[in-house]
Design goal:
By secondary structure, this protein is of the alpha+beta class. The protein contains one helix and four strands.
Amino acid sequence: MSDLPADLTWIRAAPPEATGPGPWIEIAFGEGAEDDGEAPVHLRVTNDPDNVVTTNRRKWDAFVLGVQAGEFDHFVEGVEGV
């Protein structure tokens, strides 16, 4: 994790009413314009903050669009509360 910028702003993907430490997924957008497809996007889980996965904005945007389109719904079938 030493090659990550120290000034990243981590955004926690948790419901507004959520309490407690999670674990939650956190996302940080690296340096670069919002429309720069190669700008880095970093992901981690709150209970393992040193384990960071880095992708780019183009792939992140494609993933988010896939989630919105329901392409990953089969991963949560049968999960309580879904």
